[in-house]
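= Paired protein data =
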Amino acid sequence: KKVTGDGVTDKQKDDAKAALDTKMKEIDTQNQLSQTKIAKLNQQQTLLDLEKKTLETQLQAYNNELSNVEKAEEDSIKKSAPGYVK
């Protein structure tokens, strides 16, 4: 066994380096998976935002339509009612 000045053998250093390299690869893999999950979540958020905007637009259109119908009903009632109804 060859021992260096710090009391650690070359094999121990090599084993420690291999263990560190393995752990770093695991961390890199986990990081890539996390980045993929983040990208997927961002894509889902974009789709949800688009759906929300679509629903808000539809709601506004329905509210406008309802307002127009209510106004038309009021105008129709006023036209058909006797002159003393205002």
